[in-house]
């Protein structure tokens, strides 16, 4: 019988399987952060349990950390308590922590891959929904809640209903592959299949338009699987994948042998059956800009804000939600996207704050200045990304253009630290969620790629970045 | 977890529909680091006025219901954000049973994960219970709620029932599979990070 990549990974991790019951699945990697873990550790303590496999578990601090000078004391007391609590928990339970001053600190989904901890064919969990990012390595990676964090710590397993499979086939060649990015591909996909198109399914991205992408671009795609309703998205590993993981700090010792087995096994068999399928040709994709309050409310940069009726196409609920979104975003239908002025620019988050993202954005920014009405910042995804960017002089390019250059963390992606939008402020953001209040109460988020964010920062409004390169 | 068998208690009548988790435990209280301690913030905006003084007309502030362990409420209880903190707050406040005509999915399963029993009854039975003033006796084993000369039976999934009766949480149950987990670990190529 033929099997899809996901089914192969699933089958090789089943610990217990009984009819009409969820299966017990073994977890190869558990990544922990400060916000969703305190109650889980508390539960272990109350029941005198220990962490079953500290050797498969790591922790970092990312959601709450200030991105300004870290030698200064933290202002937010509750955040600082959560951080201290994680430090204590890691000490008590013997878990390796990449703490606030560690050179490997960073957004949890950025550091897993860059440390060689994320491996093809593995199962990976973290108490954060964007764990799907790591599916780019051909892993089954998904977000979990606090009870499941505790369960994984104690047992290294989870009870799961087997998800269905959904093939996303992306073919063709992008026109101007510098200006039209993988962010534009995934936003176009979500625009088509909707925010619940992938519910109950694991997405497998396939086709030449996917294999053409670098690993960092593939991560951007898998990252946003959850925005299409899928807990996980994955891409079969290839030589780019194996090269990316090679020679990292925690790359396994017998790496070459592992690669040999992965090469043989980790792909969907020819003619394997998916429960659902969707095909997209990337040739016609333009740079994308979100205009509403969910990641399916997206337009081509050359387009206009739709009327609620056009957007909803006779679906009353959709029409209503578009009306509500436009009111919240303070936008009029039929306004050209390129005429929308912006106040803030955020280049950061686990979607788009890796080295390539920063390099591409810097390419656009080089020798120019941020528009005087705009406040722009770059928050690297990890300390390692920051360090490498500085070696290339990217920090200087950004700072010369009047961008702020920050320490790594989640920052304004969710605004749990002091980096937030003020009510009414409009932001071009490279993050993944444009929900009401996501970047700060009353703040208005437009999701874009790093090059689009960079060009918009310079112009003071959205622009078609294809005209710049 | 503590085993669950019988609860004898007054009913707290809470006749509201669509109570969402943000009302059960408002966002500003989510930064605690324990599962306990959320009780004092339960229904915060309804229980307290702007100066933090208890509102006398809110049912949970009525001394009559002070030790009540049973909350009876209306349709779609626990809708909205999936935060587990909502169940932690109810339990910490003292509730072990919540009765309603319907619940939001995630809230319903979060209850079982935390040793709280959610019971679905039809609207007429809920209305009847909302009026019962004396203590009622709830027996999980026989699936009965008795008050005065009357009694109501309720449904519960048999797996979940056993779990509550034995006080087993998900982790206890999984640990019963320990042999299988060990077998898996011995026979698979698990790659340690360090
Ligand atoms: S960067 Fe944003 S989406 Fe990514 S883990 Fe942090 S908060 Fe979540």
Interface with most residues: A-B, 39 and 27 residues
Ligands: iron/sulfur cluster
Number of helices of chain B: 8
Strand residue content of chain B? 15-25%
In short:
The complex is a heterodimer of chains A (469) and B (194). With 469 residues, chain A is an alpha/beta fold.
Topology:
The complex is a heterodimer of chains A (469) and B (194).
Chain A: H1 5-11, E1 14-16, E2 23-26, E3 29-32, H2 38-46, E4 57-60, H3 77-93, E5 96-98, H4 108-114, E6 123-126, E7 140-143, H5 146-155, E8 157-160, E9 164-171, H6 182-193, E10 201-206, H7 208-211, H8 215-223, E11 232-234, H9 239-245, H10 255-265, E12 276-281, E13 288-290, E14 298-300, H11 308-312, H12 316-329, E15 344-347, H13 355-365, E16 375-378, H14 383-391, H15 394-400, E17 404-405, E18 426-429, E19 444-447, H16 450-459
Parallel strand pairs in A: 3-4, 3-6, 4-5, 6-7, 9-10, 9-12, 10-11, 15-16, 15-18, 16-17, 18-19
Antiparallel strand pairs in A: 1-2, 2-8, 13-14
Helix pairs in contact in A: 2-5, 6-8, 13-16
Chain B: E1 6-9, E2 11-14, H1 21-24, H2 44-47, E3 70-73, H3 85-93, E4 97-100, H4 105-113, E5 117-120, H5 123-131, E6 136-139, E7 144-147, E8 150-153, H6 158-165, H7 170-175, H8 178-187
Parallel strand pairs in B: 2-3, 3-4, 4-5
Antiparallel strand pairs in B: 1-6, 6-7, 7-8
Bound molecules: iron/sulfur cluster.
Residues 62-63, 107, 109, 128, 130, 349-350, 410, 413-414, 431-432 of chain A line the site of iron/sulfur cluster.
Q: What key phrases describe this protein's structure?
A:
heterodimer, A: 469 residues, alpha/beta, five-stranded parallel sheet, 16 helices, 32% helix, B: alpha/beta, Aconitase, domain 4, four-stranded antiparallel sheet, four-stranded parallel sheet, 30% helix, binds iron/sulfur cluster
């Amino acid at each position: 019988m033929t099997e899809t990549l996901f089914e192969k990974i699933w089958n090789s991790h089943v610990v217990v399987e009984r009819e009409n019951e969820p299966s017990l699945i073994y977890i190869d990697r558990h990544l922990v952060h400060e916000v969703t873990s305190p109650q889980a550790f508390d539960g272990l303590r109350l029941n005198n349990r220990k962490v079953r496999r500290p050797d498969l578990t790591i922790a970092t601090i990312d959601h709450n950390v200030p991105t300004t000078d870290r030698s200064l004391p933290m202002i937010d007391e509750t955040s600082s308590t959560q951080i201290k609590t994680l430090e204590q928990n890691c000490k008590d339970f013997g878990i390796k922590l990449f703490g606030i001053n560690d050179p490997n600190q960073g957004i949890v989904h950025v550091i897993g891959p860059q440390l060689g901890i994320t491996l093809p064919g593995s199962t990976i969990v973290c108490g954060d929904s964007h764990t799907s990012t790591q599916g780019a390595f051909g892993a089954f990676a998904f977000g979990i809640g606090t009870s499941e964090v505790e369960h994984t710590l104690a047992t290294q397993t989870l009870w799961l209903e087997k998800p269905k499979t959904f093939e996303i086939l992306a073919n063709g060649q992008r026109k101007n592959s510098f200006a039209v990015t993988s962010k534009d591909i995934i936003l176009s996909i979500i625009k088509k299949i909707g925010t619940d198109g992938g519910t109950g399914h694991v997405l497998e991205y396939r086709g030449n338009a996917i294999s053409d992408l670098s690993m960092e671009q593939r991560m951007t795609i898998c990252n946003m699987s959850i925005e299409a309703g899928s807990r996980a998205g994955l891409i079969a590993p290839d030589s780019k994948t194996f090269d990316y993981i090679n020679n990292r700090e925690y790359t396994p010792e017998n790496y070459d042998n592992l690669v040999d087995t992965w090469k043989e096994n980790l792909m969907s068999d020819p003619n394997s059956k998916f429960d659902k399928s969707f095909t997209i040709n990337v040739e016609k994709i333009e740079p994308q800009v979100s205009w509403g309050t969910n990641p399916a409310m997206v337009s081509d940069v050359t387009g206009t804000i739709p009327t609620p009726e056009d957007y909803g196409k006779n679906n009353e609920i959709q029409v209503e939600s578009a009306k509500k979104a436009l009111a919240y975003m303070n936008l009029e239908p039929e306004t050209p996207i390129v005429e929308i002025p912006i106040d803030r620019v955020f280049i950061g988050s686990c979607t788009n704050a890796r080295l390539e993202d920063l390099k591409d954005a810097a390419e656009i920014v080089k020798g120019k200045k941020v528009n005087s009405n705009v406040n722009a910042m770059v928050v690297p995804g990890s300390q390692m990304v920051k360090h490498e960017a500085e070696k290339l002089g990217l920090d200087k390019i950004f700072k010369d253009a009047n961008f702020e250059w920050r320490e790594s963390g989640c920052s304004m992606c969710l605004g749990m630290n002091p980096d937030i939008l003020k009510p009414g402020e409009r932001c071009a953001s490279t993050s993944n969620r444009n929900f009401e209040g996501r970047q700060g109460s009353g703040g208005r988020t437009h999701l874009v790629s790093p090059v689009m964010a960079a060009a918009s920062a310079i112009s003071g409004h959205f622009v078609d970045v294809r005209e710049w390169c | 977890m503590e085993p669950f068998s019988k609860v004898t208690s007054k009913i707290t009548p809470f006749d509201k529909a669509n109570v969402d988790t943000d009302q059960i435990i408002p966002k500003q209280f989510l930064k605690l680091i324990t599962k306990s301690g959320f009780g004092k913030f339960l229904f915060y905006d309804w229980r307290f006025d702007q100066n933090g003084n208890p509102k006398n007309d809110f049912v949970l502030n009525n001394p009559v219901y002070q030790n009540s362990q049973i909350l009876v409420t209306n349709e779609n209880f626990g809708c909205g954000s999936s935060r587990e903190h909502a169940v932690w707050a109810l339990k910490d406040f003292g509730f072990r049973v919540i009765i309603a005509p319907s619940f939001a999915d995630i809230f319903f399963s979060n209850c079982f994960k935390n040793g709280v029993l959610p019971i679905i009854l039809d609207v007429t039975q809920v209305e009847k219970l909302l009026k019962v003033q004396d203590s009622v006796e709830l027996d999980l084993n026989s699936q009965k709620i008795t008050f005065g000369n009357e009694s109501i039976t309720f449904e519960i999934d048999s797996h979940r029932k056993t779990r509550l009766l034995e006080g087993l949480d998900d982790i206890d149950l999984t640990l019963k599979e320990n042999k299988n987990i060990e077998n898996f670990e011995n026979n698979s190529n698990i790659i340690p990070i360090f």
